[in-house]
Amino acid sequence: AQSVAQPEDQVNVAEGNPLTVKCTYSVSGNPYLFWYVQYPNRGLQFLLKYITGDNLVKGSYGFEAEFNKSQTSFHLKKPSALVSDSALYFCAVRVSGGYQKVTFGIGTKLQVIP
Amino acid sequence: SAVISQKPSRDICQRGTSLTIQCQVDSQVTMMFWYRQQPGQSLTLIATANQGSEATYESGFVIDKFPISRPNLTFSTLTVSNMSPEDSSIYLCSVASGGESNEKLFFGSGTQLSVL
Q1: pLDDT tens per residue across span B66-101
Q2: Among positive and negative, which fits the CA dihedral A20, B2, B59, A101?
Q3: What pLDDT, in 10s, does the model give residues B40-73?
């Protein structure tokens, strides 16, 4: 079975400060890892993914995430937070190869304080 | 990428009635997915809908309660049948598209369902 843990229900950060949203995963096999963002009253949007290659992946809106195999983590980061980054962030995992079921974390609410 | 139109965006329904949610994609896709998003919980996959075959339901979800149609490669419906307050949730349709192995998921804007 595969699972995703997002240990923080909410993360508060001041505008302009760096932000980190944590994610750890468990999967049998090589993982595909994702971050999705959900703005209020809108559907989820793809933010970035790790499939293979460089452990640091860059995505939309200046976000990046680092794949750490030994710690089974895939934390989302941004050097300088914007108020407009305030949203609900979901980490997700699936096994590589063909179509595989995607498992989502519970979500972390990011609040950027002006 | 894929653009998904989902409707209705929200509805308030009476116990015992049924609601059908529609999902239209702007391109042909093999698989469409239906998720439920309950407050404080992760997205839960209800079923996978392939065109021309029966939908595949996840554990805890049954066809009688959540019948799905998939008449063509761009459209699907999910019906929530004989609703109870426990069915109050956000329902999302999704497709897999893009990337080396269609690994990206694209989502509709969701249907906020409240059952009284």
Answers
A1: 999 999 999 999 999 999 999 999 999 999 876 656
A2: negative
A3: 788 999 999 988 788 999 999 999 999 999 999 9
CA distance A107 to A38: 9
The set of residues, in sequence order, having a beta carbon less than 8 Å from that of A58 and lying 6+ positions away, is A48, A64
Identity of the residue in A42, A90, A97 whose CB atom sits nearest the CB atom of B43: A90
Mention every residue, 6+ apart, whose C-beta is less than 8 A from residue B20: B77, B78, B79
Residues of A with Cβ-Cβ distance to B41 under 8 angstroms: 106
User: Within an 8 Å CB–CB cutoff, is residue B45 touching chain A?
Assistant: yes
CA-nearest residue of chain A to B9?
A41
Mean pLDDT by 10 residues, chain A (114 residues): 93 97 93 92 88 91 95 97 96 82 93 96
Interface with chain B: mutation pick from A99, A100, A101, A106, highest number of B CBs within 10 Å: A99
Q: B96 CA to chain A: closest CA distance, Å?
A: 9
